[in-house]
Amino acid sequence: MSPSPLIARTVPALRRAVDNLRKRKATIALVPTMGALHDGHVSLVRLAKRRASRVVVSIFVNPTQFAPSEDFGAYPRTWKSDIAKLAAEDVDIVWHPGVEAMYPSGFATRIVPEGPALAGLEDRFRPHFFGGVATVVGKLFTQCRPDLAIFGEKDFQQLRVVTQMARDLDLGVKVIGSRTVRERDGLAMSSRNAYLSAEERAIAPALYRAMRHSVGQIQAGEAIASAMAGGAKAIKAAGFALDYFEVRHAETLAPVTSRKDGPLRILVAAKLGTTRLIDNIAV
């Protein structure tokens, strides 16, 4: 049986634990999470272990990235299961602060990202989101002081925002994206999949199928606008309320009109019942 990781709940305790790793000349990888861990998170931890000698996983449901109408209170919290998964992967430290440790009384400083944070994708529908993400990830980087940090590609715009922030602010952290882990039917693994009813879960893979179909059409030479229109129609016909279904430049997230505009990525966000799903794939 694998030993349980050290669990730090205060910044001083975390700093002592990280300092002990540094004394042993360890390279440190951070895997930021909000808990409710699934196989996608485990894949991030395994990549972190391949890239560094020691791994820190943070578990913190960040209130500043939730709007008042969103699911902060209902967001799944599965602490015992999470720790069991992390112990099985031989994680060294779990950083599990309370809200008061991350945002103590008088907290008054926030990071306001631009660039990919203003691409007109998630930010159109969740204008509060990337400010909350950038602020908490900035704090996690300075608290944990990792050499590298692993983020899943499922939240692709978030990956671009965090990468830009780390570079712009000279945080000394290499941000690495890890491929999206999918269920057998193509649905991207997500903690929010637990919200889907059985009927909705059967419908949900339509997002991935629509993306794959549009990619095939674009690669076959069909105009981007036409290929994407067909995909959007299929998503709506499956029962989703579509927020966006777009092709963007894979690095800058700028709009594109043809395959010649650079490496491309299809990104989608849509609601099925009360559950909002996001996904993306390369073209």
Automatic annotation (TrEMBL):
<keyword id="KW-0566">Pantothenate biosynthesis</keyword>
<feature type="binding site">
    <location>
        <position position="158"/>
    </location>
    <ligand>
        <name>(R)-pantoate</name>
    </ligand>
</feature>
<feature type="binding site">
    <location>
        <begin position="34"/>
        <end position="41"/>
    </location>
    <ligand>
        <name>ATP</name>
    </ligand>
</feature>
<comment type="similarity">
    <text>Belongs to the pantothenate synthetase family.</text>
</comment>
<comment type="subunit">
    <text>Homodimer.</text>
</comment>
<comment type="function">
    <text>Catalyzes the condensation of pantoate with beta-alanine in an ATP-dependent reaction via a pantoyl-adenylate intermediate.</text>
</comment>
<keyword id="KW-0436">Ligase</keyword>
<comment type="pathway">
    <text>Cofactor biosynthesis; (R)-pantothenate biosynthesis; (R)-pantothenate from (R)-pantoate and beta-alanine: step 1/1.</text>
</comment>
<keyword id="KW-0547">Nucleotide-binding</keyword>
<keyword id="KW-0963">Cytoplasm</keyword>
<dbReference type="GO" id="GO:0004592">
    <property type="term" value="F:pantoate-beta-alanine ligase activity"/>
</dbReference>
<feature type="binding site">
    <location>
        <begin position="152"/>
        <end position="155"/>
    </location>
    <ligand>
        <name>ATP</name>
    </ligand>
</feature>
<feature type="binding site">
    <location>
        <position position="65"/>
    </location>
    <ligand>
        <name>beta-alanine</name>
    </ligand>
</feature>
<feature type="binding site">
    <location>
        <begin position="189"/>
        <end position="192"/>
    </location>
    <ligand>
        <name>ATP</name>
    </ligand>
</feature>
<keyword id="KW-0067">ATP-binding</keyword>
<dbReference type="Pfam" id="PF02569">
    <property type="entry name" value="Pantoate_ligase"/>
</dbReference>
<protein>
    <recommendedName>
        <fullName>Pantothenate synthetase</fullName>
        <ecNumber>6.3.2.1</ecNumber>
    </recommendedName>
</protein>
<feature type="active site" description="Proton donor">
    <location>
        <position position="41"/>
    </location>
</feature>
<feature type="binding site">
    <location>
        <position position="65"/>
    </location>
    <ligand>
        <name>(R)-pantoate</name>
    </ligand>
</feature>
<dbReference type="InterPro" id="IPR014729">
    <property type="entry name" value="Rossmann-like_a/b/a_fold"/>
</dbReference>
<dbReference type="InterPro" id="IPR042176">
    <property type="entry name" value="Pantoate_ligase_C"/>
</dbReference>
<dbReference type="InterPro" id="IPR003721">
    <property type="entry name" value="Pantoate_ligase"/>
</dbReference>
<feature type="binding site">
    <location>
        <position position="181"/>
    </location>
    <ligand>
        <name>ATP</name>
    </ligand>
</feature>
